[in-house]
Amino acid sequence: RTMATIARQSLKIGLIPADGIGKEVIPTAKAAIEALGSDIPKPEFIDLLAGFEHFAKNGIALPDETVNILKNECDCALFGSVSSPSRKVVGYSSPIVALRKQLDLYANIRPVTSVAANPGEKPNVDLVVVRENTECLYVKQENLIIGEHGKEARATRLITERASRRIGQMAFEIAQARPRKHLTVIHKSNVLSVTDGLFRETVRGVPSLPDVGGRFDGVTIAEQLVDSAVYRLFREPQIYDVMVAPNLYGDILSDAAAALVGSLGLVPSINAGDNFVMGEPVHGSAPDIAGQSIANPLASIRSAALMLRHLGYSKGADRLDKAVDEVIREGKVLTPDLGGKAKTGEVLDEVLRRI
Ligand code: GGG
């Protein structure tokens, strides 16, 4: 599924590196895009601020200016990673969660694919996690009260028919465009029969919607409880093609699936809405290695490729993906997460040489 390609003189790309290794890997995606030359409209980059580090210095995690520029001036964006603390910090709220909502980027599309030994061969793992991106427990309505037996914390989990329908439609469209055309709906409706029950029923009902008109007839549909889905993902990942899940399950499943392909440092994503797309590596800000120039740049470069593909620039996207696959397949210049000794910049140079 791609946004309709419109004739553009230039491609305005907002860059939001945010925290930690985001600051090291987003510049590599920028360099890779710049190397594409005339395969894409001339890229123009706009540096934008957000993140916990920005909050710590300035008291704001997501400046209005960042959101306004994204909405009014950019064609697309690349986001790095954010380090929200695990404790409540007064006045702070996750900028990536807010950004996805404010730009209505309702689908987080996370392909997890291994690189086959030889070009043209089928990869062992080739699946896409389609994660609902705007609701579930991420509506962040939590409260704490002192009850009869001490502290009681509650959170609201929101699942709506509208959000489940549109993520379901997106997942069917992605499945329809893939060779296997197989969609698995992930839920836990044996326990959460109201919330997950609504998600499951709504997604399963997508092919019967009046405006679908048989478009998804070729897609086979299965469903799986989230716990057994994790088990089967590790035992037999080949059974999965496209997996669609509510926000929290999708977040966890896609990080878990990354273990199957060697490193979180390889897994890209896009946050997609009907009018905007934002690439984002699945990995976080990795404070343990931030500042050492050893972060893996490949997830960010692949996220740039996904973003360009979504915008309809498949030639440029193919060149980035092919270059990344070659570097992984050759296995000589890799960062430490993949067992190598190379620096971020050395891996980038290998990619640029092949673009
Ligand atoms: N690029 C993905 C990323 O930054 N992951 C870390 C994450 O999900 N953080 C949520 C947050 O800190 O708000």
Automatic annotation (TrEMBL):
GO MF assignments: homoisocitrate dehydrogenase activity; isocitrate dehydrogenase (NAD+) activity; magnesium ion binding; NAD binding
UniProt keyword annotations, A-Z: Magnesium
A single GO BP: tricarboxylic acid cycle
Domain Isopropylmalate dehydrogenase-like, chain residue ranges per copy: 12-351
Alphabetical list of InterPro entries matching this protein: IsoCit/isopropylmalate_DH_CS, IsoPropMal-DH-like_dom
Cellular component GO terms, alphabetical: mitochondrion
Listed Pfam families: Iso_dh (PF00180)
Keyword Magnesium included in the entry's annotation: yes
PROSITE patterns: IDH_IMDH
Source superkingdom: Eukaryota
PANTHER family linked: DECARBOXYLATING DEHYDROGENASES-ISOCITRATE, ISOPROPYLMALATE, TARTRATE (PTHR11835), HOMOISOCITRATE DEHYDROGENASE, MITOCHONDRIAL (PTHR11835:SF48)
Entry's family note: Belongs to the isocitrate and isopropylmalate dehydrogenases family.
Protein name per Swiss-Prot or TrEMBL: Isopropylmalate dehydrogenase-like domain-containing protein
Taxonomic source organism: Piloderma croceum (strain F 1598)
